[in-house]
Structures are given as C-alpha cells and as structure tokens.
Amino acid sequence: MTALPERIERKLGLVIDLDTCVGCHACVISCKGWNTENYGAPLSDMDAYGADPVGTFLNRVHSYEIQPEGGGCAQTVHFPKSCLHCEDAPCVTVCPTGASYKRAEDGIVLVNEDACIGCGLCAWACPYGAREMDQAEGVMKKCTLCVDRIYNENLEEVDRVPACVRTCPAGARHFGDLGDPDSAVSQLVAERGGFDLMPEQGTKPVNKYLPPRPKDRLTGGVATAPVLPTERRDATGFLAWLDRTLEKI
Amino acid sequence: MNQPWIDTSPKVSDEIRKTTCYMCACRCGINVHMKEGRVAYIEGNRDHPVNKGVLCAKGSAGIMQVNAPARLRAPLRRVGPRGSGEFKEISWDEALGLAREWLTPIRKSDPSKLAFFTGRDQSQSFTSFWAQAFGTPNYAAHGGFCSVNMAAAGIYTMGGAFWEFGQPDWDRAKLFMLFGVAEDHDSNPIKMGIGKLKARGARIIGVNPIRSGYNAVADEWLGITPGTDGLLILSLVHCLMEAGKIDLDYLARYTDAPLLVDDETGLFLRDDGGKTLVIDRATGHLRPFDEKGVRPDLNASHPGHRTVMQLMAERYLKPEYAPEAVADRCGIAAPRIRAVAAEIARVAFDEAITLDQAWTDFRGERHEKMTGRPVAFHAMRGISAHSNGFQTCRALHVLQILLGSVEVPGGFRFKPPYPKPATAHPKPHCKTTPDMPLDGPHLGFVHGPEDLALKADGSPARIDKAFTWENPMSAHGLMHMVISNAHAGDPYRIDTLFMYMANMSWNSSMNTGGVMKMLTDTDENGDYVIPRIIYSDAYSSEMVAYADLVLPDTTYLERHDCISLLDRPICEADAAADAIRWPVVEPDRDVRGFQTALIQLANLMELPGFVHEDGSPKWQDYADYIVNHERKPGVGPLAGFRGDGEQVGRGTPNPDQLKRYIDNGGFFVSHIPEGADFYKPWNMAYQDWAVGMGLYDAPQPYLFNLYVEPMRKFQRAAEGHGDRQPPDHLRDQIRKVMDPLPIWYAPFEDGHADPEEYPIHALTQRPMAMYHSWGSQNAWLRQIHGRNPMYVPREIWDSHGFADGDWARVSSIHGAITVPVALHAGLNGSTIWTWNAIGKRKGAWALDKDAPEATKGFLLNHLIHELQPPRGDGMRWSNSDPITGQAAWFDLRVKIEKMPAQHETDPDMGAMASPVGRGPRNLRWKVGK
Lengths: 249, 929
Known about the structure:
The complex is a heterodimer.
Chain A: E1 12-17, H1 26-37, E2 45-46, E3 54-55, E4 59-66, E5 75-82, H2 90-93, E6 100-102, E7 109-111, H3 121-125, E8 132-133, E9 140-141, H4 147-150, H5 163-167, E10 173-177, H6 184-192, E11 208-210, H7 235-248
Parallel strand pairs in A: 1-11
Antiparallel strand pairs in A: 1-10, 2-3, 4-5, 6-7, 8-9
Chain B: E1 15-20, E2 29-35, E3 38-44, H1 57-60, H2 62-66, E4 76-78, E5 87-89, H3 92-109, E6 114-117, H4 124-134, E7 139-140, H5 148-158, E8 166-168, E9 175-179, H6 187-200, E10 203-207, H7 213-217, E11 220-222, H8 229-242, H9 248-254, E12 260-262, E13 277-279, E14 286-288, E15 305-307, H10 308-316, H11 323-330, H12 334-350, E16 353-355, E17 359-360, E18 366-367, E19 370-372, E20 375-379, H13 381-384, H14 389-402, E21 412-414, H15 479-488, E22 496-500, H16 512-520, E23 532-537, E24 549-552, E25 561-563, E26 575-581, H17 594-605, H18 622-628, H19 657-663, E27 667-671, H20 684-693, H21 709-718, H22 728-737, H23 749-752, E28 760-765, E29 790-792, H24 794-799, E30 807-811, E31 816-823, E32 831-835, H25 852-855, E33 893-899
Parallel strand pairs in B: 6-7, 6-22, 9-10, 9-20, 10-11, 22-23, 23-24, 28-32, 29-31
Antiparallel strand pairs in B: 1-2, 2-3, 4-5, 4-24, 8-21, 12-15, 13-14, 16-19, 17-18, 25-26, 26-27, 28-33, 30-31, 30-33
Helix pairs in contact in B: 3-17, 4-17, 5-14, 8-11, 8-12, 8-14, 11-12, 21-22
C-alpha cells in the first residue's frame, strides 16, 4: 500500500467545459502523440491494422445522449475523460509497490513505470476507469498532466500546458491550480458552477467539469417580433410600410 | 515520502520544421518536431493565421500517416485484370514513358479523349494549367460532388462564398446560425469560432437533421427534415419581411433590390452602355446605379417595371411561406420558426454594433461609422447536396443580405481574393484543337445560354456534361458523372481516364458497385470500354486496383505544395495569406509528388507553356514552378517575398522565395489596412488595396444579386427566346428551376421514390476526426471511428422493435444494404444516418481482411444511383442539382426492415490483392531514444 503525501502544495488540474466540447477528439490524439514520444514507455497499439485494434490512450472522449427532464429533444454531451488527479486517490493507496504516487508539489498522480508490476489493482480501484494497462509494455499508463511539458524549460512559457489544452480547438479545456481560489480556473469553476465527477465516491477529484448551458428555449412561448398590422401582411401592406419607412431614412 | 526523480524538462526535439497540414482541406500550420531526422511529434503552429496553434485529431495523427503501411512504394503497372489489385513495380522512366506513349497520340488527334479529374486537389490553378496545355476540355476537381451549390450560389449572389472565401465575424457575432454542417472543411476555425462565441455568451442555432458535433453544442437545435432547409429559410424571410425587420438602407445602397426589372422580359433596365439603372429617390429620375449622390429607391415606380424589392414582397409575403404552411414539411413547429425569426431580428437590429471607423463607398460617399448586424451564418454540404441545393443556398444568402449582415461587423466577412462578383470570374472554355492548348480555363461562371460548353451541333463539349442545359451553372464540373458517361459513351467515348486522389471505385462514387463494373466492363472485342486508366494516389486506396498505371504520390510531409491566392488560399477576413508545404522528410520510397510528376510528363510531351521554344523545360519540378511560374507578369503562385524579397502580391520571381516562406513558418500574411476591412465590395480603400495586391487589375465594386439575372436568361431561352435553344425535353425543368429569385421545390427523389413505400431519409456525415481526410485507415484514428452502425431515431427504433445488436436491411429504389443499427434519439424522426467512408474494401489500405471496416463497415453509396430512374425517354438523367450539377447525395429515400444479425454487412464487394501487403501487427512508435 502506498501513502498519499500529507500536504499538497498546489492542485494542478483541468477544467473541462461540457458546454463547448464539440467531441472532435483533438485532445485524444494530441495526448496520444505527446505521450507516445515522451514520459515513459510509448503508448502502444496492438493489432493496429487488424480486426481488433487496441491501443493505449490516456484521454478518451465519450458521447452520451441525455433526455432532458421535463421533455424536449434528446441532447448529446461530449465527455472527455482522463485521470482526475484526485486528492484522495484510491489508485495510489491501493498500489502494492509504491509505483503509483501523488506528487507533493503539484498533486499530479503518476506511475513510476520502473516500479510498476502491472498488477492492475489501481485500475480496479479507480472509479473513473481512467487508467489503462499498456498491452505491449505491461505497465499501467495514465494522464501525467503532461508533467514533462508544464515545467519544461525547452518549451516557450506559453506552451507549458498539457498537450490536450494546447491543442483543443474550441478552447474547452483549461489548466491551472485549482487549490488557488484566485486562479483563472478556480474563477471559471465558480462562475459556471463547475462540478466534481461522481462526488459520492469520496475521491475529491481535482479536475472539474463545467455543465452545458440550458438548451432549446426558443419554443415560441416567448414574445415574437413585432409584425406589420395583421390586415396588411401582404405585398401591398409591405410596400406601404416600405414607403413610409423610406421617407424617414 | 519517497517521490522518484523525474526529468520535467526533457529535450522536446532536435528541430521544428514548420509546414502546412494536409490531413484534410483546412490547411492549418503545423510544427513538425524532428528527432534524428524523423517525424517525432506534430502540433499546431501558434503563429499561423488558420489555426493559431490548435490542431484537430487528424492533424495530430499525421505521424501515423507519414508512417502508414498503406503508402505506395513505386510506380505500378497492372498485370492482373482490372480490379484485382495485381501489379508489378516499374521505374519512373518506364511509368512516365508509358503515360507519354498513351497520351501523345490522343493529344495529336483529339485532346478531348483524355478526361483528367483531380479529386481532392489543392493545386487546381496548376492542374487546370496542365489540362489546358494538354488541350482537353475534360478537367475538374471534386467540387461537383462536394459543395458546388454552396460555392456557386455564394458567388452568383454576393460574389463570395463560405469557408475559403469568407467566414463569420467570430469576434463580434452575437448570434450564429449553422445549416447542414456536422463538421466542415473549415474545421479548426469553426471550432475556434464556436469557442469564442461561447466564451462571450453568444448564442448558436444549429439546423441539422442530426444532433451531433456542432449541433450538439448549439443552444437551439432545429432537427429539420432533409431537403427542406430552403423552405425554412424562405419562411424566415417571410417572417422578417412581415415584421419589417430588414435593413432598407443596406438593401438600397449595396444590393440589386432597387434595380428595375422589366415586367415582360424579367431583365434589368439598363442604359445604352449596359449599366443597370435605378430611380433616384431624391429626384425621381432614372440614374446609373453607381452614380455619385444617387439614392436608389427600393419602391420606385417606373412604367412596365418593378423593383427587385417589390418582386420579393409579392413572392415571399404569400401565405405559402408562412411558418404555419411549412412547419409539417420541415418537421419544425410553426411557433418555433417564428421564435427563431424573432431572435434573428432582435439580435440584428436591437443589438446592432457600431464601429467608429470612417470609410468611403464606390459612389464617393463618406460614412463616419460602420454599422454591424451581428448575426452570422454558415452552411455547407447538408443543404448543398440536394437537387434543390442551389436554390436553398441562394435563399440563405438572400436572408443574410436582407438582414444587412454581409461584410459588416458581426456578420459574414469575405476573405481575399474575394469579394469577386461572378462577372469577374472566367467563363467556361471548351474549344479543342488537335495538338493545341484549350482556348482558355475550363471552369467558370456562365451568364446566359451563350456561355454554355456546347459543340456546334448543340451536344455537350465536356464528358461530364457540365455547362449544358441539363445543369447550366456547373461551376465545378460533375466528377460523379465522368465514369458513368465515359462508360455509356454519352456524350462521347474517351480513351484515357486520368485521376488523382479520387476514390471513385469506393466512397467517392454514387452506385459504387455499378462504377466497379463500368471500370472493368469490356466490349465485344474483349477490350475495356474505358480503354486506359491512370491514377495517382499516395496510398493503397480502393481506386488503385482499377488503374492500368499508378503514379505513386508522396505523403504531405514529403512534398512541395502551394496554397495559392490563384485558387484556394488560406486568407482571413482581415488579411491575405498563402502558404507552402515542403519536404520536412524525404520519401523513403520511389514516389514523387503528383504535381512534379505532371511537370515531368509535360516536359516529356513538350506541352506548350511547360517548355521553351527549343523544347527545353521551363521547370524541373513543382518547387521550381511555384517560384518561377508567372500567371501574368509579376503575379505567381505565391504572393509573399517576391522580387527582392520584400515585394507583396506583384514582383518578379525570387529564387529565395521558398526559403523565405520556410523561415517565416511556411506561410505569408499581408493585412488589410484598417478601414478597408469591412464593406469590401463597396469600400474604395479595400478595392485599391486589392488592386495593389494583384487580386484585381482595376477596382470592381458591384451590387449583391438578390435577383440572379443570368438565371432569368436561361428561363427565357426555355420560353423560346434567343438563338441558342434548349432541347424540348429540358424546357419545363429549366423554366421551373432557374427562377431568378430563390424558390423551394421538393428534392427530385421525392418524385421517383414513392414516399409511402420509402418514407425515410438517409444521410451520411463524416466524423470530425476524419472529415475530408485521406487517412481513415490511420492507426490512431481508426480506433476512434472503426465502425459505423446505421443510426435510427426513437420513432423508427420503437415502431420496428429494434434492440441493441440488431441488424436491418435498408433499401432504396436502387439497391439494398444489410447493416447493424443503433439508436440515436437526437435525430429527425424520419431520418436515419451513418458515418461515411468508414467501410473499406477487403485488401485496401493495408488493413487486415477481417478489419471491422471491411466486415462491419458499409457504404450508403450502394443505395444512391448517379442517374435518376429511367423515364422511358431514352435519356440518362443525372442525379444532380439541375442548376449546377451538384451530386444530390442527400435526396435519398429508403425503407428499413429488421433482419437477423449477420457476421458481415452486405453487399460484400470481394477482396482485392494489396499492392503493399498489410501493416505491422503492433505499434510501439517512439522515434527518440
């Protein structure tokens, strides 16, 4: 069993806007590209051109249909999901070798691949399904919050964000310190009613989601535009209105 | 606490090479990170005008494309029967020699025996130049089966179109309305724009039968019945006119609304010099539309004439356009249509924007401010790919113009080289002479029957019958008809079909199985009916198997390209911009960029324009052409770094030009001066800037065309006026569809397929991670979209008793497929859909024969014929828009029946041999140590 640090200095994480995410998978592939080439073993793809391709991804987008309460059209929510870097991370405490750990300085949950025995307990313990066993390497892979980007002095400062955040075309992904109430991400969460995923699990996820805005409100129940007088809603009425109006221009 | 040490500052790469993406048509700038000379990682280029650093899934997956096992390795000559996929590798000398041997006799006898169609080509100013030099009239790219209705309607109506030639004002729009777009060519800019709108609290209305992608994040979703968008739009026009919510000042000054239409002829009143006339509201006198000080009168009285505004009032205020009259057909409740109209009106007029920016219009009048109507629109294939698509696209532009929301802050803005009216475009050319170039550019805009591409005997000059009475305004040609017409010998037989990046034996054709038969059909002598096929592709696509000679192209990271102001640039609304591709890695195979191969073939054949008088080549390869070709003196493919390196737009060729582009990140931008960046068609500051850039030779201000007079000229011909007359069997159709003011008519399929028997509409969408991509076999992307069930709405799901895991037979009047189904509740109740082009043929793309794409994937194309059903008149009526020839993919009507589950989808088109084998089993792709 592995201990969580007693004190976390910063709570780095993601804020994902479900109102804006169009489900394009840009974050999924950018993550795949960066993390195949960088931290740890490459993210493998088994049977890559075959009948049952199974690759390792640290971030996936799921789409769900939701039937709004009180009727109305079904809505689709695109739901990107990766490790939420929980404060009470069960994947860490369950690890028998200390390979899974939470960093004291920024709260990032990482896997030390040298110590990972591929037992899979952490994936079992994670209520979010956010860890994937790499089939080729036999080690557990997970979101690193691009720990090798966010402090990387070989990158320009503007690029020191996770690959998924840098690439998101719709700007639906935000990165920052959720432990600092004044940070831009904390402000965004406060303004938009950001929420925890499955809070009942007691994991205290650091990542937050922003809810979709209400939809389909132009039903005709509200006032419509002022119209030409009823008796003149034809070409004659229109041209009379036109003449009157042109006089005023 | 014992944390391991980790390196948080690893070296990212040895070098970054900046080029242009080609995973789709969006043309984003990319940073290609190199390690040890190999591609290690691809990300967006922050400085690039298109994507400003972001990148989509396709772009980031480019590394799997440059390494794809499906890449062709060397030129191929067919050794087995066509379609078998059996080839032998040959040298480039042999390949180009063979092409010369085949093509030279054609050129010397009858150049029209070559049909040269270039698919997803982004170098059309070059490929059309080649085809002109060859002398064949038979050239186009894939616009005819993609979105020509959108492009042509935009250019005829307002001198510009969505995507490449214009964009919403993402920074100022407060309401954005999107029609028929799941994903689009402009993929990252739309996502970035939606992000901007959302961040500002602006609202989005999505009109689409399918609530996916952008429509899923829209604030309002109108789940319209396919093919009725035009009716909805004209109903919105009805509501806005009824409410008096139209921009009268804008209409009077900048559009043809005040022009006088002759009651008898339907043509504009003109002076002796041919200039259109208006009544000046101040004096009551007839005046040229552009005279200084004229205040055109929208409600003018002139004997025997009515203004366009008056004609529109007569038409669109009729009760047949009221929401209550269209609601059932559109599948949208009338109060909701009225509420949407009210919201559009509220934002356009109550939330108008004013910029303190003075400008001077083409009449010489100075305006102190710029007024914006912050309602922006965008639309693409969903409304375009119907037989009523042109009129629907026209209707949308008319709606924009009535609101005064084109080329104003917050509305829709043109991108250079647009605005450019239809009259400033070339007309089609089709005059062939043995051993001589064509008489001019193939494609263009017709302005009346006199511009049609007809032979002296009135028969079509082009193999695709573009610019004929069947579809007079076919500005992009009809690629989907080429093989069918060539096979039928209608209008004539050809010798060689030469194609590039066009998967015609699979997802790029209607009637896929039929096309495969046409490509392999033999005559009574046992010879192929289409005698020779040359094909160029970078990958082992399904079409490769049907070629006699394959010219292997490079991947996009191994080639030179230019994204040029001469055809399809990457401009922004406030800047002219173009870009290059360059070989960030050298090919490790015996392949050549297609454009280079074309130049080398032209040099071998000594085509005019490509060689000097002594027969020596002007250009060795495409890079040489990009730098040194001049379309007119000083104007070449690239606008940046000309002359001494500092000249923009116009300047002599600069031998260092490509290096300057590479040093600049692969692109060039020249900003439009402040004050010139709105009202461009009428703003003299913009007009003068455009002349300086070489976009125009002289200022060319013009009026928007609510009323498209050239369409009226075709109607008049159909009524019997003029020397050039349509055949009798087309008169009714021309009279009906060529209405100069937008109309709606039911999609043609509704008249062929009994709506009782075939009550369901069937559509396809491309997923965002594959849109317009030549890479759906990509190892990473196929894990996201490797299967494509037929999605069925709740109504049909329940009434047919479907359950998870069920299969269904889907039939049209033309064919049937048997496929897996899945429930999708956010769907128009009479519509089913699937992802397009996921299905693959066994043996193609270096995939396993049991890959899900080949076993569970399928194409809807089998249900769609390129011809309408026979009418017993002996004519072949194409399944296209009768105005532009746009392929009417989305007219399709089907029925659906529950079937027992199958192991594989039907039809199974059999396997082809793979010329490249199959891909590696597992990938652990790490380039760096």
